[in-house]
């Protein structure tokens, strides 16, 4: 049970970091990508230790040029 709480915490931290980057960015510059997260928070239910938990976080580009994601990781 302890591991699942840590996994949820890591995933939540990752999402919060991504949201901070998205909202901390300056206003859209003409011809630039614009990163948007339609779902900024996801609450994981309680799971048993050893069970994998998966959730897809959607990333959208609402800018006018290509959004190139070089690296992404989660807990």
Descriptive report:
With 75 residues, this protein is mainly α. The chain has one domain. 31% of the residues lie in helices and 5% in strands. It is built from 1 helix and 2 strands; from the N terminus they run H-E-E. The protein has one helix at 2-24, and strands at residues 35-36, 60-61. The protein has a two-stranded antiparallel sheet. The radius of gyration is 15 Å and the shape is elongated.
- Order of helix and strand elements from N to C terminus: HEE
Number of domains: 1
Structural class: mainly alpha
Unreliable stretches:
none
- N-to-C CA distance: 16 Å
Categorize the overall geometry: elongated
Overall radius of gyration: 15 Å
Q: If you average the pLDDT, what whole number results?
A: 78
Q: Strands, helices and their partners?
A:
Layout: H1 2-24, E1 35-36, E2 60-61
Concise structural overview:
With 75 residues, this protein is mainly alpha-helical. It has one helix at 2-24, and strands spanning 35-36, 60-61. The chain has one domain (2-61).
What key phrases describe this protein's structure?
75 residues, mainly alpha, two-stranded antiparallel sheet, 1 helix, 5% strand, elongated
